[in-house]
Every structure is written in C-alpha cells, then in structure tokens.
C-alpha cells in the first residue's frame, strides 16, 4: 500500500506538468522562454528555502548546481528550443526517450539491472506518445532533434543523479536547493539574451504563479520524494503522464479535436506506465532471487 501511495503521489507531478503548455500559451507572452523558466524556478526555490530554512552545506554546492542544471536550467532551455523548432508531437516523443535513457544511466551509475520488462514498457510508452501526438505534418529539424534528445538526456541524468546523491535532508529542502540553483543559472542568460518582459496582465501573473508555486515548487517536491523512494526506471515511466494530460486538457479546455488514433495512443501510454511499475517492483525481483537461491542450495 505504501508503494502504491508513493507512485500515485509521484505521478501527480507530471500530471501537473501537463498543464504547462496550456498555461504558457494561454496566459503568458510569447518569446521569453528563458525568462519564464527563470521566473518559474527562482521564486519557487526562494520560497521553499524560506519555509525550510535549510541551506546546502558547502561540500554539496557542486552537486546541487549540477542537479539544478540537469533538472531545470538545461532541461527547460532545451525543451523550449525543441518546442520552437519541432512540431509538438515530435518534441514530446523525443522527450519520452528519457525513460529508456534512465534505464541505461541507472545501470551505469547505480548498478541497477536492466530488466526486459522495463525496456519493453519504455518502448511501448514511446510508441503510445508518438501515436498520441505525432501528426502527418511532423518534420525533423536537426537542431530541434538535437535539443529534444539533449533535453531528454538532461532530465534522465538529473533523475538518476538525484537518486544517487541523497542528502540527509527532506525532499522539500532538496527541491529548494535545486530550484534555487537552477534559477540562478537561468537568470543571467535571461538578462543577456532576452528583452525585458512587457507589462503583465492579471492573467499572466496568475499563470506565472501557477507555474512557479504548483508547476515547480509543489510538483517537484512530490517528484524528488518519489525519486528517493521508487526505482528510477519506474519514476521515469510516470513522466509519460505529462503528454497525456496535455492532450486531455487541450481537448477539454480548448476544444481541440481528439482522434481515435490519439485515444489509442493515450491508452497505450497508460498501459505502459502500469507495465513499467510492475516490471520495476522490487518485491518481484527479490522473490525471484530468493527462489533461485533456495533452489541452488537444495541442488
């Protein structure tokens, strides 16, 4: 029951992230991706720091800034580049490769075995996302593809390293450290490469508050809590809930069409997420090892 609760709570994070596209396109001015990313990360990090009153020790600063770069600064910038240069479906499908990358990185950095069921679930999820989002107008811009792959690799590395490097603090503090570091990395790039934001309407301010407080602070606390408790491969599969949520919100809120093929893709993604959790259950593998050892002793 504890694992089910951990999975459900962790899955809430990508469900919330699925609202990012809707909130960004409907409430915020276009053309300020780095500035929006900085305003999403930095205030959220500062707020959590004020709540926790826990600063990272000096020996942790290098790791915190590396994680803040992988999970936020580099990931969000590459994500926006991919979104601008590729059709949304292609960008999201490249992002879904993160699950496969996590399996390989977890093997190298954590010594986690590569399980055939986990690989199959990740491949099924990628197929589902492609059916859900990739249309006939899909085009492959080389720079956009590179950004999409780089963004998936950045988030995968951040997920695995966040599991490998677990400081003796709460998930709230760990999230505060990373969000603040990511915001500090993004701020100078926003100031150097983007013009100042125009005056914001009340709707735009509300959108920023949602992205920062809910889409960053609250959701990433749940995400990093899950990273500490659930196997990295299982956590990465939950990220596929984000494109499903984005499509459903577009259908319900914006009145966008939802084809039969997209519905099949959504079902495939949900099945792959379920299969990924089954394939990565530690109890199943521990039972297999126990039974194997017992047979070996009896032989």
Question: How would you describe this protein?
Answer:
- The protein has 299 residues and is mainly alpha-helical.
- The chain has one domain (2-298).
- 80% of the residues lie in helices and 0% in strands.
- It is built from 14 helices and no strands.
- The protein has helices at 2-17, 20-27, 33-52, 61-85, 88-96, 98-110, 116-133, 142-164, 171-193, 202-229, 232-238, 241-252, 260-279, 282-298.
- Helix 5 packs parallel to helix 8 (142-164).
How many helix segments?
14
Supply the helix-strand structural class. Answer: mainly alpha
Specify the biggest β-sheet: none
Oligomer: single chain
Low-confidence stretches: 284-299
Strand content: under 5%
User: What's the β-strand tally?
Assistant: 0
Membrane topology: Multi-pass membrane protein
Transmembrane segments: 34-52, 64-84, 90-110, 117-136, 142-162, 174-193, 205-223, 235-254, 260-276
Main location: membrane
Pfam family, one: EamA
In short:
The chain is mostly helical and 299 residues long. The protein has helices at 2-17, 20-27, 33-52, 61-85, 88-96, 98-110, 116-133, 142-164, 171-193, 202-229, 232-238, 241-252, 260-279, 282-298. It is a multi-pass membrane protein.
